[in-house]
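Entry 14. Structure prediction run on the chain below.
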Amino acid sequence: MSVVVVASIVPLPEHRDEVIAAFKDTIARVHAEDGCELYSLNEAPDRLIMIEKWASPEALANHSRGVNLAMLNPRLAGKVSAPPEVVVLQPVPAGDPDKGAL
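Output returned:
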């Protein structure tokens, strides 16, 4: 069963563009990871939100300890207000299967 992740990142205002650039550089490589179904950067005025979907908990675990995050994290150091807030979710099927799930 797929796993959905929502991660909230609050860049320091003076580093917002650098943080976005770091994620943009990483996204294509993450899209190529086994089990990546969705890895999407979204923005709000005060934060960035990653919405992710992984084919399995194992695929998410591999991503979490993989080279792409290991390369991204140093680029974020000193440019975000705190570590990302990461929430791992399990889908609850409801309604139209095409509209009721990520």
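The two ends are 12 Å apart (CA to CA).
Filed with the rest of this week's runs.
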